[in-house]
Design brief:
The chain is mostly beta strands and 317 residues long. The protein has one domain: Glycosyl hydrolase domain, family 43 (Tachylectin-2, Chain A), CATH 2.115.10.20. 8% of the residues lie in helices and 39% in strands. Strands 13, 14, 15, 16 and 17 form a 5-stranded antiparallel β-sheet that branches. It starts with a helix and ends in a 25-residue tail after the last strand. The N terminus is likely disordered.
């Protein structure tokens, strides 16, 4: 009888373990309601913010940008529309895509794609209202090879700011101190193996990480890879072996991400979109957050898209 109990218990553990490994049908809930994509996550003061693309139209015909805030990464509050292309921008009316935000000079600079150009708007608060800073694109359509979309700005510890953008190629250039100008002759264009779009840069322990999305956002294989360098403009060496973010089971098309660090801690999270569950596709995507971790050598470990995020509190002053 004793051996029968032991055998039964062992079989139960094996069965439970197999189920846990095979259960890819119960993805965590999204952090934003409805369909939003290309989330840029940031932290200002004691709040986290997400700036996404408004999804749900074939051809990505959205015309406005929204802002969402959270005190703990779990519960998110809709702030408002912070930039409306037809009302606030004179040079583009639709295809409002893939924004990013940066803080410098006591101002918040909001970079956005509009009709396959890149613009920049400025505000005194992370929730706006944002006003067009130039009255024209910061990066105009067809200025370089590929699409002029998906801006991201990284501000280094010394205050220098760098703009990364582009689909097809990753373009990089240092911004002027005003955050709205650059020397076009100093743009560096690279194409890491597998690069498609959605670049994002951060710094950890003196190392610069350039991340990007591979495949097309309509492809279920859409995923995220990265490279590292000793300076913000490279040269970058790709981390080979595996994507750090990819779909699995019911989660498809996981990509176009951003990364945030909890102030005062070596604790990191990745925000990204996936196909809406159920019935989603490249035009109907939803925003998620997962923990992101590193090994002792600083390599980014594969993200578990089925790991739920626990509430996080910001303790900075």
């Amino acid at each position: 009888m004793r051996y029968a109990v032991i055998i039964f218990f062992s079989l139960f553990l094996l069965s439970a373990n197999a189920y846990c490994q095979a259960d890819t049908l119960h993805a965590p809930a999204t952090v934003l309601p409805g369909v939003f994509a290309d989330p840029h996550i940031a932290v200002f003061g004691k709040k986290f913010y997400i700036y996404p693309t408004t999804d749900g139209t074939e051809g990505w015909k959205g015309t406005s940008f929204t802002c969402w805030s959270s005190k703990n990464l779990v519960k998110w509050k809709y702030e408002k529309v912070i930039l409306d292309l037809p009302k606030d921008i004179g040079w583009a009316k639709e295809r409002a895509w893939a924004p990013a935000i940066a803080y410098k000079n006591g101002k918040y600079y909001y970079y956005f794609s509009a009709d396959v150009n890149i613009g920049v708007a400025v505000a005194d608060k992370p929730t706006g209202p944002f006003k067009d800073a130039l009255g024209k694109p910061l990066v105009r359509r067809a200025m370089l090879k590929g699409q002029m979309i998906d801006p991201m700005v990284f501000v280094d510890d010394d205050g220098a700011a760098y703009l990364y953008f582009g689909q097809g190629n990753c373009n990089m250039v240092q911004l002027g101190d005003d955050m709205i100008s650059y020397d076009s002759a100093k743009i560096i264009s690279i194409k890491p193996k597998g690069y498609n779009e959605g670049s994002f840069v951060f710094k950890r322990n003196g190392k610069y990480y350039l991340m990007w999305s591979e495949y097309d956002t309509r492809d279920p294989r859409y995923s995220v890879a990265y490279a590292t360098a000793d300076s913000p403009l490279g040269p970058f060496v790709k981390a080979e072996g595996y994507p750090v973010l990819k779909g699995k089971g019911v989660v498809k098309g996981a990509g176009h991400h951003s990364v945030v660090k909890v102030p005062g801690k070596d604790e990191w999270y990745i925000a990204y979109h996936r196909f809406k569950i159920p019935g989603g596709n490249g035009y109907n995507r939803e925003t998620c957050i997962s923990p992101m971790r590193f090994d002792k050598e600083g390599n980014i470990l594969p993200v578990d898209v089925f790991e739920k995020v626990k509430a996080v509190k910001i303790h900075n002053k």
